[in-house]
Write a structure and sequence with these properties.
Order of helices and strands: EEEHHEEEHH
Shape: globular
Radius of gyration: 14 Å
Strand order of the largest sheet: 1-2-3
Length: about 90
Amino acid sequence: MVSLVLDVAPRAMAVECTDDELRVALVDGRRLSVPLVWFPRLAHASPAERANYELLGEGLGVHWPAVDEDISVAGLIAGRASVEAKTVSA
């Protein structure tokens, strides 16, 4: 018997930023939540700027035009914070 494994990239369908977290709902039903401090541009943005996002590549990434922030869903799943966050905390 042969099994076929499909490697489907995770895709976002909705995004929410609280004062402390970035939350991403995926099309497969999973929900991701990471600390907002991982993304300094979002952490320092206003609630209105955080709410104004665009899904990129059918949900493979998220873009916030007001603060020029781009985050990949694969990066979130891998637990990768922004390079800027690493620079600030170092």
